[in-house]
Every structure is written in C-alpha cells, then in structure tokens.
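Lecture 7 notes: from sequence to structure.
We start with the chain below.
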Amino acid sequence: MSTAIDPRAAELRDRLRGTLVAAAATPMTTAGEVDLDLVSGYLAGLVADGADGLAVLAHTGRGPYLSEGVRAAVVERAVALGVPVVVGVGGTDVVAQARAAAEAGAAALMPFPSPGDRVAEHRAVWEATGLPLIAFDLYSLPCPPDVLVALVALPGVAGLKAALLSDAMACQRTIEITRAADRLAITGEDRMFGPSLLWGAEAALVGLAAAHVGVTADVLRAYRGADLRAFEAASARLDRLAAATFTEPMEGYVQRMLWLAAEEGRIPATHAHDLYGPDLGPEPLSVKDVL
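Predicted structure tokens for the same chain:
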C-alpha cells in the first residue's frame, strides 16, 4: 500500500527513475591527500561516460573518514557538474553532515546503515534539512522487513537502495516493499545487477560505476530497449567486471575500482589508494584480466 510522500521527495523519485547514479570513489594519495581539482576531473569523466548522477562520500567514497572541509569541497565539486548529487552521511554527527551537504547543494542524502534506530535517524536528517532521503539496505547490516516498511513510509524518503550482495530473496523483498510504498526501488546490486532490474528495480546507484562506467550504463540502456540479446551480452560483461572487483575480501572493492580508474586514465596512479580497506598487495587489478 502506498504511503504519503512529500512533494520534494516525489520530485527526486521521478527525476532519478531510469537513471544511473555512480557511487564515486575519492581518489587520494598514500598519505591521504585529496586533490580537489583531480576529483573534479574524475567526477566529470564519470558523467561524460554515462552517469546520470553522482553519489559522493558514500561507502565507495569513504565519506566517514574524510575531514569536514574535504567533504564539503567534494560535494561542491560534484554539484558544479549540474547532475543530481546524492551525499552519504552517517556517524555520530550525521545531522551536522547532512546540514553541511544541504548547504553545499546536495539533491539528496543517503544515511549509512546503522545498528541504532534507523527510522529516528532518517526522520532527524529530514527534519534538519528538508532534503529527500535515499534509504539503504546493505548486506553487512541488513534491515529487518518491518524497519524497511517504516523507512519507506517516511514522507521524506524518495527511494530505497538494495545492496544485499548475494541474498536474492532479500533483494526481491526489499524491492517489493519499496515499490508498494510508491518509492523508487534502486539497485545497488553489483553482483545481481541484471536480475535486480528484472525484479523491479527502476534505477541504479552502484560502486561498480566508479570506473568503466559505460559497462554499467550499457546494461541499463539495453534493458530499456527491446533487444534481449543485447541485454544478455551487456549483463554478461558487467558480471565479469563485478566478479573481479566485488569479491573477497569484499571491502577491497574500493581499491580495485581505484586501480581500474587509474588504468583507464581517470586518475593518476599516485591517487589510486584506498587507505581504509584491506591490503590487497602491490599488484593492481587490470581490465585485461576482467573484460
């Protein structure tokens, strides 16, 4: 059964329907230095190559680890590109982060999954900013069905992103709950991307689009078309990329995507470092080993 939605959230829901939002990484050096001009060029390249919107400071972008100043600047650089920008917020200062993102021009906020009262947290962020929210069901901290129902009933929630990795039944349930509330079902399923579209996802927000964004965009484009074989081929290509990047140790996917972004020429190798994931060794992943 659909539930009341605020007009601001409804507008974002409709704006994002059918789009690919790239969950961007935050390129940095081994010392953790972030070159904001480089970030601008990297984000602009993702948009030029097929991303309809950007998600920054989310899990892929390591937002919780960045300083307040860097976070604000990254949001501003993303907003300057003229596409919808979803900003990840979370932690003990979630409301302060949300207000800063709103001041920098974010179109929406995506609170990180937390073990606390998620409904209360989403309500607090909405009341503090008035920005539409994207709820987030993540494999490492999955959301109970009753909480999902309560989240999508909030007036400020425009959609819900499912990123359940390998739990097909939970993904289908999350999509069903989201659509029943007349919210946007967003796939974050890097390892179940094609199937999640067939299950009813209507948009995508994925870390897989942090590099080789065209591989993901091609699947969405083929899905909207009438050529089943084109969709099959595009999905198979994406699955090869996902199998090489979203694998154990799973937190290593950020480093793997940065390696691919550097090989693509999106960022220099000096800034292709994830300081907050597992050590994967010195040998970078290469697209020739993937596609």
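Points to note: The mean pLDDT is 96. The domain at 7-289 is CATH 3.20.20.70 (TIM Barrel).
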